[in-house]
Design brief:
Oligomer: single chain
Largest sheet: 2 strands, antiparallel
Low-confidence stretches: none
Mean pLDDT: 90
Helix content: 55-70%
Number of strands: 2
Number of helices: 11
Strand content: under 5%
Length: about 280
């Protein structure tokens, strides 16, 4: 840990960040009844993460939201574009092999309300969900730990915590949680490379928005955006079962490719006052 870092202060900073997240989450819980379950859960999580970051920044740093990785400039546009490319391509790769080998087929649904409006609505919700989770897991608290304890001691355990909070998702499995931890670590490394949240948000959203286009479940949740569904002719080790492809060995393999992409991509490095001077490992 860098000299001069007070463990008690770090604990208070991160603890206050988590406290305000939970407080805002409780305060926005009414949205579930006002705008429906999907929008309510998504927007309450997004607003809670946004509020927690704003309050913690104001109390401890006297800063603005841009200081945790939200500048908008040419590098930001490049990073979110690279993230979308990496996330969407990874999801498409997971789908390509089983579809090509007929281990899975895309079948029409007997009834479906899918249309362009549904696709736009779901895309907005998935983006807000990805942004909210990244602000929570790669936002102020994560960055304080990163500058205090370094990359390995922060990215790995926060990745595990990211997976642990998916434990309550429908049909969660051990392999699904291991893969989710892998995603969390890659998103953390993406932040370390870019020093902004645009790259991990792009990766997260690109993955989440692509799977439903193939008719696949996302983290145990069925999201219909087309008139088709994915039907598997393979066992759960390859299909991921009801949790979806994120609980499959195919995703385990693609995670290595996604890490290589993040490591080699021409990422735009941003100025970030919270972690300036931190050496990338």
């Amino acid at each position: 840990m860098p000299a001069g870092r007070d463990p008690l202060r770090i604990f208070l900073q991160v603890g206050l960040f988590v406290f305000f997240y939970l407080l805002f989450l409780l305060a926005t819980g009414f949205l579930v009844w006002g705008v429906g379950y999907l929008a309510g859960v998504t927007l309450s999580g997004f607003l809670a993460a946004l509020g927690a970051n704003l309050v913690a920044l104001r109390i401890y740093e006297g800063g603005r939201l841009t200081e945790i990785g939200f500048p908008w400039n040419r590098a930001a546009a490049r990073n979110i574009g690279l993230g979308l490319l990496g996330g969407a391509t990874s999801a498409a790769l997971v789908m390509a092999l089983p579809l090509a080998s007929r281990a899975a087929v895309i079948v029409p649904l007997a009834t479906s309300e899918a249309n362009v409006r549904t696709l736009l609505y779901v895309s907005v919700m998935l983006f807000c969900g990805a942004a909210g989770e990244e602000m929570l897991f790669r936002g102020y608290g994560f960055q304080i730990l990163l500058r205090s304890f370094g990359p390995y001691a922060t990215i790995l355990p926060v990745g595990v915590l990211f997976a642990a909070l998916h434990y309550t998702n429908p049909h969660a499995s051990a392999l699904g949680l291991v893969n989710t931890a892998g995603f969390g670590m890659i998103f953390g490394y993406a932040f370390l490379r870019s020093r902004d949240l645009w790259l991990p948000i792009g990766l997260h959203f690109g993955w989440n928005v692509t799977l439903p286009l193939f008719g696949a479940n996302v983290s145990g949740i069925t999201i219909r955006v087309t008139s088709y569904a994915l039907q598997w002719n393979a066992g759960p080790l390859w299909s991921g079962g009801e949790y979806g492809p994120e609980a499959s060995l195919l995703t385990s393999a693609v995670l290595f490719a996604l890490f290589a992409f993040v490591r080699m991509a021409p990422v735009g490095r941003q100025q970030n006052p919270l972690i300036d001077g931190l050496v990338e490992s």
